[in-house]
């Protein structure tokens, strides 16, 4: 018997036992349970489509009367996400020269602040002396530390950490000490033949999401087999992030995820997610992150969408009545 087939059979057996026992991890959602709990919504595979704001809600939201852009990864952009009702923010974590964890997407501060230089070569004091660039050409707040960001988010919104350096253990320590650990989702690429990563010491106390597929130019390997292994973690995973998958690979990953009632997460940005299939097919570039892409992702079973246009995506989901309700998989055969 091939290893992937064995894993799928083992996964099916585990799922059957859990469902038969009506355990809380896989319990069927009920119509009178709205899933208001932040962590509970993430783990409830049937609680509608979740919206993740890429680098927080920095884009204008004209439909909500917000016409000004905000600095990405800023506390102001976090507050806007909360005001809009976004489910989760995605932010980027780096480390300064003196070991502080800070929020910055790029390796350098050149693009987003009034300073220059690499984050890894700055002290925390130098980093906090910077100011984020404002949309009007002025300056805004100082870039936040991870601790400051989690303190602002506590009890208000889910936070997905994109850790840009091999600092997972330190990130976990800061998160666990923050008081907001129940709202944090961390992620990392799942390698072929790797044991369930959610059970590793760096991730075992947190919600963890494996990234399956081609990441940073590395080939996808066997996405279905990788998914089947990762789903077996004792620290139950809430979602699988799809990375540059072909359609045939996606179909197999989706089958494993649905069997275990695990969400599928896709980036709606150009050249991301499912081999860039929808983005190239529809328009490409920034226009790809729009209604036609969202519709195709949802119809194919994706229930967590990362976007640069969270307010518009929320409007779209509300119009389709997909908030708090599991979307049907329209394109089951793909």
Structural description of this entry:
This protein has 334 residues and is an alpha/beta fold. The protein has a single domain, classed as TIM Barrel (Alpha-Beta Barrel). The chain is built from eleven helices and nine strands. It has an eight-stranded parallel beta barrel, surrounded by five helices. The radius of gyration is 19 Å and the shape is globular. Residues 13-36 and 275-286 have low confidence and may be disordered.
Sketch the major β-sheet.
8 strands, parallel, barrel
Q: From N to C, what is the helix and strand string?
A: HHEHEEHHEHEEHEHEHHEH
What number of domains? 1
Kindly report the CATH topology.
Answer: TIM Barrel
The total strand number stands at 9
**Can you give the mean pLDDT?**
85
Q: Give the C-level CATH assignment.
A: Alpha Beta
For the termini, the CA-CA separation is 27 Å
Give helix % range: 25-40%
Strand content range: 5-15%
């Amino acid at each position: 018997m091939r290893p992937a087939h064995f894993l799928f059979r083992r996964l099916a057996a585990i799922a059957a036992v859990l469902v038969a026992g009506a355990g809380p991890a896989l319990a069927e959602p009920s119509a009178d349970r709205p899933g208001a709990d932040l962590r509970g919504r993430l783990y409830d595979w049937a609680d509608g489509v979740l919206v993740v704001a890429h680098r927080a809600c920095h884009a204008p939201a004209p439909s909500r009367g917000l016409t000004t852009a905000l600095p990405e990864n800023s506390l102001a952009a976090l507050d806007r996400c909360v005001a809009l009702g976004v489910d989760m923010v995605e932010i980027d974590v780096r480390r300064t020269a003196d070991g502080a964890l800070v929020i910055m997407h790029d390796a350098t501060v050149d693009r987003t602040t009034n300073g220059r230089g690499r984050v890894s070569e700055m002290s925390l004091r130098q980093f906090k002396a910077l100011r984020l660039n404002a949309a009007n050409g002025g300056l805004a707040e100082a870039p936040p530390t991870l601790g400051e960001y989690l303190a602002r988010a506590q009890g208000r919104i889910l936070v997905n950490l994109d850790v840009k350096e091999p600092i997972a253990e330190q990130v976990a320590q800061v998160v666990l000490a923050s008081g907001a650990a129940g709202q944090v989702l961390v992620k990392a690429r799942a390698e072929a033949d790797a044991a369930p990563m959610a059970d590793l010491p760096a991730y075992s106390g947190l919600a963890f999401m494996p990234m399956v597929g081609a990441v940073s130019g590395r080939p996808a390997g066997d996405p279905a087999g990788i998914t089947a292994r990762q789903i077996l973690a004792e620290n139950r995973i809430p979602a699988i992030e799809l990375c540059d998958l072909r359609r045939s690979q996606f179909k197999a990953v989706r089958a494993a995820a649905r069997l275990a009632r695990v969400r599928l997460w896709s980036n709606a940005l150009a050249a991301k997610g499912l081999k860039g299939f929808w983005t190239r097919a529809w328009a490409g570039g920034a226009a790809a992150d729009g209604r036609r892409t969202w519709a195709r992702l949802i119809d194919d079973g994706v229930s967590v969408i990362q976007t640069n246009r969270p307010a518009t995506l929320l409007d779209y989901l509300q119009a389709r009545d997909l908030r708090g309700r599991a979307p049907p998989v329209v394109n089951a055969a793909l």
